[in-house]
Specification:
alpha/beta, three-stranded mixed sheet, six-stranded mixed sheet, 2-enoyl-CoA Hydratase, Chain A, domain 1, about 260 residues
Length: about 260
């Protein structure tokens, strides 16, 4: 089981995270499947991708249990982040439009995935948080590159440094999402938007996306590489290990 469901509807590829019992957290298998799905979509005539998720959460970020349980947590985390980053860079450099539908929490790398989307529909119960500092690591998923561009440097600091959590309405006000809908209307709202966008000629969509992204995409690949190196390095520290094991045990650690 890869934890990913992929289906195709004419020129729309639907990618659904399907590890609901684990909060749709990303492990190596899921990240690799996501990377493969993006690669296929780029080459098969897809003009729009929808990103959705099963269960009450969109994505809780990286799978902390998998990372901590690996023989070499730092190496595992580096490989996980790098796989995700290859997929996100491929999306950013492509002409494929990405529509994300978010319910519940989009945390850590889950928030990063949202920031990489071109259009975001959020359920009224959606929340957005970086969550990295609580685990003693730095962000990945392009978060530190995209967040200041989307919300500004001061608000980015509130989210990434102070751990602020955004509710759906605040996310709308800050420009993180485009629309907020009732939870039971989320799937259809995203699908309807995807179908509407897909009616535009693909060449026009691709050209417009590349022009919109021109303001921030320069140096994105290098920045993603720096994020992967940073989070992997911090995974090896005693403080981060204490915080992560405490997270898994649902208790507060004694960190000096």
């Amino acid at each position: 089981m890869t934890g990913l469901i992929v289906s195709v509807e004419e020129t729309i590829t639907h990618i659904r995270l399907a590890r609901p019992d684990d909060g749709n957290a990303l492990d190596l298998e899921l990240a690799a499947a996501f990377e493969d799905a993006v690669s296929t979509a780029r080459s098969d005539g897809t003009s729009v991708i929808t990103l959705t998720a099963n269960g009450p959460l969109f994505c809780g970020g990286g799978d902390v249990a998998a990372m901590c349980g690996a023989p070499d947590p730092a190496a595992y985390t580096y490989e996980l982040a790098s796989s995700l980053h290859r997929a996100l860079l491929a999306l950013a450099e492509s002409g494929v439009i990405v529509v994300a539908a978010v319910q519940g929490a989009a945390a850590g790398a889950g928030f990063g995935i949202v920031l990489n989307a071109d259009y975001v529909v959020a359920a009224e119960n959606a929340t957005f948080l970086t969550a990295y500092s609580a685990l003693g690591v730095s962000p990945d998923g392009g978060t530190t590159h995209l967040l200041p561009h989307v919300v500004g440097t001061r608000r980015a600091a509130a989210l990434a440094l102070a751990g602020r959590r955004l509710d759906a309405r605040t996310a709308l006000e800050w420009g993180v999402v485009n629309d907020v809908v009732a939870p039971d209307a989320l799937t259809e709202a995203a699908a309807s938007m995807a179908r509407s966008i897909a009616r535009t000629p693909a060449a026009a969509l691709a050209a417009t996306k590349r022009l919109l992204n021109a303001a921030w995409i320069q140096g994105y690949g290098e920045h993603l590489a720096q994020e992967a190196e940073s989070i992997a390095r911090l995974m090896a520290t005693e403080e981060s290990r204490a915080l992560q094991h405490a997270f898994l045990a649902r208790r507060r650690p004694a960190v000096k």
